[in-house]
Amino acid sequence: MDDRYERSIRCSLGEIAPDLVLRNASIVDVMSGKIRHGAITIKGRRIVGLYEDYTEYADRHTRIIDLEGRFAVPGLIEPHIHMESSMLTFSNFATVVLQHGTTTVINDPHELANVLGKRGIRHIINEAMDTNLRSYFTVPSCVPALGGEFEESGAVISSDDVKSLLLYNNIIGLGEVMNYPGVVHCFPDILAKISETYRARGYKKNNLIIDGHCPTLKGKELTAYINAGIMGDHECSKGEELEEKLSKGLYVMLRDGSSAQNMEELLDYVIEKDIDTRRLLICSDDKNPHDLISKGHLDHSLRKAVALLKSKKNPRINVFDIIRMVTMNAAEFFDFKYLGKLSIQSRADIAIFDDIESFRPFATIANGKLVYMRDEIMPYFHEYSHPSYILNSVNIDRDFSPADFRISSNAKIQKARVIKLIKDQIVTEESIEEFVPVNGEIKANVDSDILKIAVINRHNHKGNFTVGLIKGFGLKEGAVASTVGHDSHNLGVIGTNDADMDVAIEEIKKMQGGIAVVKNGRLIASMELRFAGLMSVEEPSQAVKAHLLVDRAYKELGGTLSSAFLTMGFLQLPVIPELKITDKALVKMTPTGPEKVSLLL
Fold first, then answer.
1. How far apart are CA 143 and CA 463, in angstroms?
2. Among the residues of 99-238, which ranges form H helices?
3. For residue 254, what are the CA distances in angstroms to 44, 104, 364, 574?
4. Residues 351, 101: contact at Cβ < 8 Å?
5. Which residues is 27 bridged to in the sheet?
6. At the N or C end, where does the chain have fewer CB atoms within 10 A?
7. Three-state secondary structure along 325-358?
């Protein structure tokens, strides 16, 4: 018999001392839907005792914590996130989310992969292994999201790359298959990646998942997509969409991110329609650093979900159903047999909250170790060493000038396609607007909230770029630029005038990645993102301070969006409907697939 089982047995019989005892706990039993009172006893990485108090068997090495009735919940499981959106390195990201009760994260590193490819993925996996966060990864399936004639990223992940990356123990499947038109039309490249994942199931012990991404897909096209082996989706925005996807066999993740927030609307539909919650999860997808640190992670989502539940009259679902969405349901989706519940021999991953309404974190146990406790000073993980290729990823040799952003037209009245933002959504609309050119040029119109936008390739040294128009970003003066632009992460700039746009670009080049806010030709705020142009190498408090400063500067220029830079970051993602912009073109997602479209009509 394995030694760990013998230790567990002997500890449960009181023959050897436990490592940690949590006394006077209100234990949230997600399996039965009951609150049970008693102790939780931990030996090594596992729970070896429940309810009975093993304090009398403690020795001088045993830590005993009196929870005084606080609630012990299974460690929270984040089923889908791109942690790069936190703008923190993995070490610092892990430190923050552990403080909010998250003990397991499934990360799809396709932001980093689009910039640095396989070597970037390998680096972040190695860094993750050096933290207390239980970290799993999926292989990015669409790097770039479309590629070819539509966009150019810094790297490509091929089916051979998928095959080799699946050999890593903590890679547990294929990341969100965003190229759903490619699946439906049986494009060989994406089907080859799915096939490699199926083959890997033969030599890996765990059941590898194939994650989905199919906004607004329905009917026969949705059926065809699921027939490729897709298992889940986090892109639902409407209740009817959720219901069809559930009924056809998908798990559905209710997204509660910083920019895209669909959870409450979808949960409201679930409650009103009395839909079974066993195949529902909650995910973040993308969280900015300010939200992550000031509001929380999945604990914040739980607060919002339970508040919505309590506002309903006699709902059929209860708080246990909500908690299961970030514990047991997620564990079942990934086939994590020893996670998502508090039971004998489960991994000792425990989130402790003051109550199960406010979900105020008190302590976190991860893999049997106390990694966070309120009012105790807990050390940050040491900062990982990052090679120069990660810290120098902005490769633009071209010198830009304001004239590069000129939109010429000799028409008296010129119609043009405009990217129209939708509040709290990453989907956009195509809006056809009329302009009166001045001296043969279409300019930004701040009165109509129509600005110029440009995307510049930062990977290939050539600096190829596209200029377009955007409505709803809110600037009244100045310009903002950023190297965060899902998924190819080229340099994006939005401005009220060409001169400030040019200055913002030059400031980004100097920083080697980040966010720049410019007014009247002068930099007024910036946030350095040296790690691949995506993440700060500063500790979390400094990163949040910098993020607050650029957000404040954006608002001083007239901006009104709550998560402006996350919203801006999704304007380059051509697989999200309806109209987006890349370094190569304006791209419109149609029912038959993506199309390059002209700016002027």
1. 20
2. 110-128, 159-165, 180-184, 188-200, 219-226
3. 34, 17, 24, 22
4. yes
5. 36, 72
6. N
7. CCCHHHHHHHCCCCCCCCCCCCECCEEEECCCCC
Interacting residues of 393 by C-beta distance below 8 A, sequence separation 6+:
115, 116, 154, 458, 459, 483, 512, 513, 532, 533
Same domain (yes/no): 313, 400? no
**Average pLDDT per block of 10 residues along the chain, 601 residues long:** 83 95 98 97 97 92 97 99 94 96 97 96 95 97 86 94 94 93 92 94 79 94 97 95 98 92 95 96 93 96 97 92 99 96 98 98 97 80 82 94 96 97 89 95 96 96 94 98 94 98 98 97 97 94 94 96 89 92 94 90 93
- At 273, which helix (H) or strand (E)? helix 263-273
Q: Are 113 and 487 in contact (CB under 8 A)?
A: no
Q: How are beta strands 350-353 and 361-366 bridged, if at all?
A: antiparallel
Do 127 and 267 have their domain in common? yes
Task: Note whether 271 and 393 are same-domain residues.
Answer: no
Domain membership of residue 556 as a residue range: 389-597
What gap in Å lies between CA 232 and CA 255, rounded to an integer? Answer: 12
Whether residues 326 and 412 share a domain: the answer is no
**Residue among 486, 501, 483 nearest 557 (CA):** 501
Q: Are both 313 and 443 inside the same structural domain?
A: no
pTM: 0.91
3-class secondary structure, 371: strand
Q: How many residues does the chain have?
A: 601
Last residue in a domain, options 286, 315, 342 = 342
CA distances from 352 to 24, 287, 342, 360 (A): 12, 22, 12, 8
Phi-psi map region of 399: left, alpha, beta (phi>0 left; psi -120 to 50 alpha) = beta
What is the CA angle 356-334-25, rounded to 5?
25
Boundary-marking domain end, from 313, 342, 371: 342
Does one domain contain both 164 and 272?
Answer: yes
